[in-house]
């Protein structure tokens, strides 16, 4: 499903960037894909996908 119509970015692309590049915010996501760079209508939904994907990641284990 397309999230950013202006730049043809779909949810799968955003999920892959979150997992592979350890993206945790819209600002970080924008350094990999041009989401929200035109009309900006996609930012809210892109943020929801980032948060959803983060919640699916395994918890970080603190290593001293
Ligand atoms: S839909 Fe993403 S910038 Fe317009």
TrEMBL record:
Keyword ATP-binding annotated: no
Entry keywords, A to Z: 2Fe-2S, Electron transport, Iron, Iron-sulfur, Metal-binding, Transport
Family matches, as CDD domains: Fer2_BFD (cd19945)
Lineage: Bacteria, Pseudomonadati, Pseudomonadota, Gammaproteobacteria, Enterobacterales
Domain (BFD-like [2Fe-2S]-binding): residue spans on this chain: 2-52
Family: Belongs to the Bfd family.
Protein name in the entry: Bacterioferritin-associated ferredoxin
Gene Ontology MF annotations: 2 iron, 2 sulfur cluster binding; metal ion binding
InterPro entries: BFD-associated_ferredoxin, BFD-like_2Fe2S-bd_dom, BFD-like_2Fe2S-bd_dom_sf
């Amino acid at each position: 499903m397309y999230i950013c119509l202006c730049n043809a970015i779909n949810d799968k692309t955003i999920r892959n960037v979150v997992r592979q590049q350890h993206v945790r915010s819209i600002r970080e996501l924008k350094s990999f894909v041009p989401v929200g760079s035109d009309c900006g209508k996609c930012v809210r939904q892109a943020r929801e996908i980032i948060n959803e994907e983060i919640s699916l990641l395994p918890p970080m284990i603190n290593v001293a």
